[in-house]
Design brief:
- By secondary structure, this protein is mainly alpha-helical.
- The chain is 82% helix and 0% strand.
- It is built from four helices and no strands.
- α2 packs antiparallel against α3.
């Protein structure tokens, strides 16, 4: 393949990869927000630690989500509900 023909192919691949990432990103972000809203609705502030824990829940790591929320001072019941909201 000529070098001049490879460049458009590479660029097309990068565009497709970037577009795929943009399609997936809003779901995780929305899930993180739902988790944080759950925590706030139960009278706790949404800190950076809460956001990170919620992100873990949004990507499917429920165990880490619950443990991180509990470490941030959130009760077990609220942690479980928030992590379910993130997933």
């Amino acid at each position: 393949m000529r070098p001049s023909a490879r460049i458009p192919s590479i660029l097309a691949g990068l565009v497709l990869a970037a577009g795929g990432a943009l399609v997936v990103a809003p779901t995780a972000s929305a899930s993180v927000q739902q988790c944080q809203q759950y925590v706030v609705s139960h009278g706790k502030p949404s800190t950076a630690d809460v956001a990170q824990a919620c992100y873990q829940g949004a990507i499917g790591n429920q165990t880490s989500c619950v443990a991180s929320l509990k470490a941030a001072g959130i009760s077990t019941d609220v942690s479980n509900g928030a992590c379910r909201a993130a997933h």
